């Protein structure tokens, strides 16, 4: 049975970056339909679809929209913010959505803005995504020329390369022109967000799913996928796999199907070692869990999360300590430094993992590593600390023998043969000249 | 102007009444319980919630909350490090 793409639907046959082509496949019909509906009816339709946030937290989109005060309840304007600051290692779905179906995103913005009675939309775009910026801007100009905006202003704001600005409150701070550090919640953005006004923040994929839902009905969408995880998801498949890339599949598809049927398996028929099912910040799955289904409940049962939908395949050549080190270095570099457990804990983790990898660690230091993870988990201001502690703790948990071997042998058992050997985290590739050069 | 609304809060099993919106750190002080703080200094500005020293357990909330940024609501049951192992562990993590 061919799998129908919803978010990326039609993009294989036509160049949907052109407004005329997008219109030819029924583009902006959903907007016309939504504008003829009452705002509450639009929210109701999204509630019926059971669409849940695609950014990683999996919060029900309709419920989130219903938290926004109705006109007259709050004197401040209502803002819609689209989180396009996709920076999770392994995730590249929003990029493809923006490059190939920018109009579906814009249409989703306009429909959602109508649903929450907002006239101001901000798209917070990851700074490195210059190509997306060009495409979205060109699409916006076309839409503006056709007069489809209907009084709504859409601003594309480019970030400056901080992972933390993908956290919703840090994103709002950054958008306001302040330092990108998370705020403490409550108050939640739905009540006091951007410029202390009610703000709805949604991921690109979530917003791009709204037009098909309005067009074909929430009940239709709710019939796709599995219970509690309806619809499709764009999975970013990467790592040691033959055909990496974005695959839009119904939720509930098994990991096996994604990796072996769609992704073509592991090159040279090497053995599978582990799978990261939702981006670098979620706990890892072992090779024996390949038949798990990719949906919210199945993943929760396996002790992990669907996260941002980035499936990273790891084969037998990979040293898990090196993997942990790479991941920890990333979070150390991206920790904003505001709250103590994350700022200090990520540095401790990197130092301990360095010692482990070099074979200098004692038995106590492995326990200390787990203790540090425990001291971060659930005690930070924002989820970045958890995102660092959860994977590292899971690597130790699931591959304890390998960590133990590093201690017992006093060196990496892979002896320089690991697939990650010599690959440095981006933070290590930064060069800093320690001495200021005075011009002659 | 009407008088501020008064709410009843329990801090470490001691009942206390404060006006709504009082910070949990002050609420606890009113109940005779001290929540330690590092980064909170009301004379310097609004609370930040950064140091995580003032973590407390609130019944009905899954995660530990920062006492400085959270405000008192009617019926809130607060457990500080003195009566909650979870909160003690949270504070200990910062040290």
Descriptive report:
The complex is a heterodimer of chains A (440) and B (95). By secondary structure, chain A is of the alpha/beta class. Chain A has helices at 19-24, 29-35, 39-49, 61-66, 93-100, 102-115, 130-145, 168-175, 204-216, 218-222, 255-262, 296-301, 320-334, 340-358, 363-376, 384-398, 400-409, 426-429, and strands at residues 79-84, 120-125, 153-158, 199-203, 225-226, 229-230, 232-239, 245-250, 272-276, 285-286, 310-315. Chain A has a five-stranded mixed β-sheet, with helices on one face. Chain A has a four-stranded parallel β-sheet with strand order 3-2-1-4, sandwiched between helices. Chain B has one domain (6-94): Ubiquitin-like (UB roll) (Roll). Helices cover 18% and strands 22% of the residues of chain B. Chain B is built from two helices and five strands; from the N terminus they run E-E-H-E-E-E-H. Chain B has helices at 24-30, 85-94; strands at 6-11, 14-19, 55-58, 65-66, 77-79. Chain B has a five-stranded mixed β-sheet with strand order 2-1-5-3-4, sandwiched between helices. In chain B, strand 1 (6-11) and strand 2 (14-19) form a beta hairpin. The A-B interface holds A 184, 186, 338-341, 374-376, 378-381 and B 47-53, 55, 63-64, 66, 69-70, 89-90, 92-94.
Q: Record the strand order, biggest sheet of chain B.
A: 2-1-5-3-4
Task: State the domain count of chain B.
Answer: 1
Q: What is the chain-wise order of helices and strands of chain B?
A: EEHEEEH
Counting helices, strands and paired strands, the structural category of chain B is alpha+beta
Q: What level of helicity do the residues of chain B show?
A: 10-25%
Brief overview:
The complex is a heterodimer of chains A (440) and B (95). Chain A is an alpha/beta fold. Chain A folds into three domains: 19-223, Rossmann fold (3-Layer(aba) Sandwich), CATH 3.40.50.11540; 233-315, Ubiquitin-like (UB roll), CATH 3.10.20; 320-428, de novo design (two linked rop proteins) (Up-down Bundle).
């Amino acid at each position: 049975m061919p799998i129908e793409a919803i978010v990326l639907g039609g993009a294989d046959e036509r160049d949907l970056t052109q407004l005329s082509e997008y219109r030819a496949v029924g583009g902006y019909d959903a907007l016309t339909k939504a504008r003829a509906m009452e705002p509450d009816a639009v929210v109701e339709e999204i509630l019926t679809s059971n669409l849940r946030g695609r950014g990683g937290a999996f919060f029900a989109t309709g419920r989130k929209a219903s938290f926004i005060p109705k006109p007259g309840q709050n004197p401040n304007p209502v803002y819609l913010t689209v989180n396009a600051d996709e920076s999770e290692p392994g995730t590249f779905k929003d990029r493809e959505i923006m490059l190939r179906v920018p109009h579906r995103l814009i249409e989703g913005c306009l429909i959602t803005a109508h649903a929450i009675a907002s006239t101001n939309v901000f798209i917070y775009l990851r700074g490195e995504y210059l190509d997306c910026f060009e495409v979205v801007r060109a699409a916006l100009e076309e839409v503006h020329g056709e007069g489809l905006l209907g009084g709504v202003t859409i601003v594309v704001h480019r970030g400056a390369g901080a992972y933390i600005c993908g956290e919703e409150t840090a994103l709002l701070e950054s958008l306001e022109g302040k330092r990108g550090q998370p705020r403490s919640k409550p108050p939640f953005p739905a009540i006091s967000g951007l410029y202390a006004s009610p703000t709805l923040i949604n991921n690109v994929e979530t917003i791009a799913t709204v037009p098909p839902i309005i067009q074909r009905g929430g009940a239709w969408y709710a019939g796709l996928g599995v219970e509690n995880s309806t619809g499709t998801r764009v999975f970013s498949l990467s790592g040691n796999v033959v055909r990496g890339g974005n695959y839009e599949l119904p939720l509930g598809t098994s990991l096996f199907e994604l990796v072996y049927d769609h992704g073509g398996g592991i090159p040279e028929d090497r053995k599978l070692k582990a799978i990261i099912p939702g981006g670098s910040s979620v706990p890892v799955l072992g090779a024996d869990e390949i038949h798990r289904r990719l949906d919210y409940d199945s993943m929760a049962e396996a002790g992990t999360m669907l996260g941002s939908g980035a499936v990273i395949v790891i084969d037998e050549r990979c040293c898990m300590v090196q993997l942990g080190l790479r991941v920890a270095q990333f979070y150390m570099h991206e920790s904003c430094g505001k709250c103590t457990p994350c700022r200090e804990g990520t540095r401790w983790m990197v130092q301990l993992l360095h010692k482990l990898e070099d074979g200098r660690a004692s038995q106590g230091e492995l326990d200390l590593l787990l203790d540090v993870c425990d001291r971060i988990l659930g005690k930070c201001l924002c989820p970045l600390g958890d995102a660092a502690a959860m994977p590292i703790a899971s690597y130790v948990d699931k591959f304890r023998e390998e960590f133990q071997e590093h201690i017992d042998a006093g060196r990496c058992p892979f002896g320089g043969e690991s697939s990650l050997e010599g690959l440095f985290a981006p933070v290590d590739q930064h060069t800093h000249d320690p001495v200021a050069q005075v011009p002659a | 102007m009407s008088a501020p609304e008064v709410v009843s809060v329990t801090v470490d099993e001691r009942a206390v009444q404060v006006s709504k919106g009082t910070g949990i750190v002050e609420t606890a002080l009113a109940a005779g319980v001290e929540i330690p703080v590092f980064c909170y200094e009301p004379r310097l500005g609004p609370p930040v919630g950064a140091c995580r020293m003032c973590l407390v357990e609130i019944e009905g909330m899954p995660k530990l909350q920062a006492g400085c940024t959270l405000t008192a609501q009617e019926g809130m049951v607060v457990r500080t490090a003195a009566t909650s192992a979870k909160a003690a562990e949270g504070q200990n993590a910062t040290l």
